[in-house]
Design goal:
- The structure holds 2 protein chains of 2 kinds.
- Chain A has 15 helices and no strands.
- Chain A is mostly helical.
- Chain B has 3 domains: 179 residues, no CATH class; 63 residues, no CATH class; 108 residues, Orthogonal Bundle (Cytochrome Bc1 Complex, Chain D, domain 2).
- The termini of chain B are far apart.
- Classes of the chains: A mainly alpha, B alpha+beta.
- At the A-B interface, helix 1, helix 5, helix 6, helix 7 and helix 15 of A face helix 1, strand 2, helix 2, helix 3 and helix 4 of B.
Chain lengths: 455, 389
Amino acid sequence: MNIDYSKEDIIVSGRLSIAQIEDLIAKPLETKVDKKFLIALSVSVTALMIGAISLGFSLLYGTGLWGNNQPVGWAFPIVNFVFWVGIGHAGTLISAILYLLRQKWRNGIARFAEAMTIFAVMTAGIFPIIHTGRPWLAGYLFPYPNQHSLWVNFTSPLIWDVFAVSTYFTVSFVFWYVGLIPDFATMRDRTKEGIRKTIYKVFSLGWRHSHRNWQHYEKAYMLLAGFATPLVLSVHTIVSFDFAVSIMPGWHTTIFPPYFVAGAIFSGFAMVVTVLIFVRKIFDLEHLITIDHLEKMNKIILATGMMVGYAYAMEFFIAWYSGNQTESFVFVNRAFGPYAWAYWIMVSCNVIFPQFFWIRKLRRSIPVMFIIVIFVNVGMWFERFVITITSLHRDFLPSSWGYYRPTLYDFGILLGSFGLFFTLVILFTKALPVVSIAEIKAVADDAQPSHHGDH
Amino acid sequence: MERNNKLFAVSALFNTPNEIISAASKTAEKGYTKFDVHTPYPVHGMDTAMKLKPSNLGFVTLGFGLSGTGLALMLAYWTMNVDYPMNIGGKPLFAFPAYVPVIFEVTVLLATLATVIGMLTFFFKFPSNSHPVHDTNFMKAVSMDKFGVIIESEDPLFNEADAVSFLESLGGNSIEKIYYPVKEAYPVFDKKFIGLQISIALVVAGLTYVTLNKAVYIQPFSWMTDQFRSDVQASSTFFSDGRSMRLPVDGTVARGFMPYEYSELTTQPEKPLTNPFAPSKAFLELGKKKYETFCSPCHGNYGDGDSRLREQFPNPPSLHSEKVRTWKDGNIYHVIVNGQNVMPAYAVQLNDEERWAITSYIRVLQRAKNSTEEDVKLVRKEIISNVAQ
């Protein structure tokens, strides 16, 4: 097995010409929907409807329909919120951090990952709002001028969260749209007169591929990437502050911010791989989203999975080393208490299964990676479950210990969140180019001038 | 797009990135300034080839980013320290480390939005869907996989024949002359268009009104509004008298109620009551407080009848008149309980002790206003003894 690491891998395999690349990406937008698409859409819309009905009942009769109760007040809604925000982290990581690191292979997957970020944050945003039980009062979360001098508490992690998640959504969306402008222009120039051309025209804003624009555009892209990078790290840090700033044993630890960020990237990459496996197959994008790209993502999954595993171990170590009785009780209770089943699902899915990625053959095998990333998705959901529920269900006062059981409505809303996410993803694949046309053209073979001479 | 015969630019297409780089640098070297290069993706090295100045966009980002930092800090400081300071867990009001997350987020938000909006509007002058290059074969080609150069007619060196031969000499193909489009008129104030808008607005508003108020009336989230209880002053179908409030049983006496024997009497009683309270300091303090609450709005702070109501209302009488000063305590008490002329009764607002306390306090005011030589001596003596201590 001899791999030459001194040369950069080719990004677009199959020696496609630039025009062929464009045709390939534009094809799903220019063909009618087929049966497969409708089946996929109906499945996800069904899940969305189940969620909508569960949520509808919850709003009509109150959040008493859920399993949340003393002592576990933060249950499924917060678990799902953290899970979905975490999923959202891969997109910005791929589009911003890998951009700054000049990882050209990101060009093939950045658009899709960014879209998934936006949809995941949209899904996540629902949960804190419905968790309050009074979603129509969500406007009070923003500091608006009013006669009561009623302001938000800027020292509260919950308000940091509002700012972090809403900024993250806005910046991701803007970043995504900026990336889409040249593609809208390309689609506009491919399309014959009609309603579609008008839509592309409006969204392309009159982009004309002028280099006088490209110059500022690249600068802006760089600046946005520079801002998105600390932003993406701040968002899950702040989400972890929701837990870490409280004095709950099992939450009140300084390892939380890096641990949450690593976990978010871990789960986000797993979700991106899960979806891309299907997308590249269904839309014949195997030359643009190559097995090499998937392999690279699997390596990141392996690396972040081990970081998460390290955090699990370190939490236990500190619980023992600190000599804090309550803290060590919480961790022993986590691993061997009533929620031991959830804890061991988490550990096996997040730490043990990704270890198969050490083997190159497994890392490059589609069925194997599919199984592993599904395990990672499950494992990361359980991680948030374990953190939230095991810490709350047995705290300082043994008299108020309890056992949390989710209800059917909780599961319905969880299913609905997947329905919402996948519905948006499926509609996206038909509505917008799933690979950035301009970015992937720029990294195709012979797309850049051969550098010799003075420029 | 319909076009007129005014020339915008001459364009040429090239097939490879190497060709376009050399074409761009030669065009710039020739001295053309109003030219542009169109490529389907950013081609490396083009900035130097076209002799472009570095982008200034970073200054927009810096400026707005810093103002975001400042604004967020000021907002957090002002709301939490000035407008409504609130003690949260004994933490300092100006808890800077706890403001950092919000400051950071606002910085990023403002910098990002300013960069993008600034770039699109001020740097690119977007939206520009009516730019002449749109809907040309040139645009279609550079949108896909060709690389193009245009030399605009506004360039000082521009000459149609020269530009064409220059582009040919560079090896450009598909040389195309791009003309300005005919300005399209959008008759926004067309009568039919305005009429349509008004009728749509009316129909939508009407249908909304009928649907929400007449056809179905849905009150969202009404759990607390509709309850199984009787409201105060509401009618009842349960009780035979139709009221939801119940009258007390006959002969019921309110707690702490003491009947006043002259309550029916409109003139001063023959034998007024005597003050049962000794004038202690606390008692006079109570009288002062109640006097200032209930009496001073008309009679003035010192009983001179010089309140703000003077000249706006029948003048409230002075409490230092000969009549009031010669009254017994019980006469003042009687006026407080029953009222007099336009003064209403204060029996509801004041209990027995408070009425007597006010009476005693009025005596204090009267004595202070009409003090004798002895009083002054007494006070002076007391002041001296206080100083001596």
